[in-house]
Amino acid sequence: MSKNQVKRKLQQGEVVIGPFINCAYPAFIEICGHAGFDFAIIDMEHGPLHTLGAEDLCRAADCVGLSAIVRVRKNDAPQIQRALDIGSAGVQVPQIETKTDAEAVVCSAKYYPLGSRGLSLNTRAGMYTAAGTEIISKLNAESLVVVHVEGKKGVENLEEIVSVPHIDVIFLGPYDLSQSLGIPGQVGDARVVELMKQCVTKIRQSQKAVGTFADNPEIAKLWIDAGVQYIALGVDVAIFLRACQALVKAVKS
């Protein structure tokens, strides 16, 4: 198996960027790789994708050297296991609120002795048994674990959450965070921004990488300047919509 380049870059202090993917067409993933993105988040929480489609997107990502990260619907061991078994570079888990939640993610994502992920090598991740049991330790080492902190309770428990080992990225979800503050969708509001900045400081002090979502390059640059390394830059369907709108406006104006 190949090295997880996104994990390497984060460990070296570099910034990585990639979009959320809702479309099942593998060409979209290939295009992301050719465009120069570092990763793509296959969205099985809000998107309509199913497991077989997600597995094909992982294959397409490998073709262009892109790291495919799968966001599952919730902190659920079978979902996390399946997201990794299809050969993704990592898993992204929403709505983490406590240290216990974070520990459960690691337990589901890692094999013994780091966790209790169900063991079967008859999978794409296990190279369909071709690599033998030696691959187990490599999968433990290379899989990227990203957890979302996106509500007031998660923020209140952040110091305990960041203490959990084998989590690579704490992802601050601005939209859900704005909703938990009673101002849904107002991600530019000073209350959301200030709270997120406080979280960024705490996470960086723990030596973990910080992630967040940015609707556009300007917002991405603001968060990079604040210390965020893992930037989810847009969603494929919204990127396509805005590109189409720009074309229509350019011709009709």
List the helices and strands and how they pair.
Blueprint: H1 5-11, E1 16-21, H2 26-35, E2 39-43, H3 51-63, E3 67-71, H4 77-85, E4 90-93, H5 99-109, H6 135-142, E5 144-149, H7 152-156, H8 158-161, E6 169-172, H9 174-180, H10 190-205, E7 209-214, H11 217-225, E8 230-235, H12 236-252
Parallel strand pairs: 1-2, 1-8, 2-3, 3-4, 4-5, 5-6, 6-7, 7-8
> Could you report the average pLDDT, rounded to the nearest whole number?
96
* Strand order within the widest beta sheet: 1-2-3-4-5-6-7-8
Sequence stretches where pLDDT stays below 50 over 5 or more residues? none
The computed structural class is alpha/beta
**What is the N-to-C order of secondary-structure elements (H for helix, E for strand)?**
HEHEHEHEHHEHHEHHEHEH
Number of strands: 8
Helix share, percent: 40-55%
**Distance from first to last alpha carbon:** 51 Å
Query: How much of the sequence is in beta strands?
Result: 15-25%
Separate helix tally: 12
Largest sheet: 8 strands, parallel, barrel
Large-scale geometry: globular
Roughly how many Å is the radius of gyration?
A: 18 Å
